[in-house]
Amino acid sequence: MKILLTAKGTEWDSQMDPRFGRTEFFFIYNDETEKVETFDNRAIENEAHGAGPKTAQKMAEFGVNVLITGNGPGGNADTVVRQTGTKVFVGAGSMTVKEAYDAYKKGDLKEA
Amino acid sequence: MKIAIASGKGGTGKTTLSTNLASLIAESTAVVLTDLDVEEPNSGLFLDGKLIHHEDKFKMIPEWNKTNCTLCGKCQEVCNFNAVMKLGEMILVFPELCHGCYACSELCPENSLPMIPKKMGELKHFKLPNLDFIESKLIIGEEQAVPLIGQTIKYIDDRFTETEFKIFDSPPGTSCPVIEATKDADLILLVTEPTPFGLHDLQLAVETMKELKKAYGVIINRFGIGDTKIEQYCVENNIPIIAKIPNSRKIAELYSAGKLLYNELPEVKIELEKVIKFIQKYQEEIV
Question: How many CB pairs under 8 A join A and B?
Answer without folding.
Answer: 40
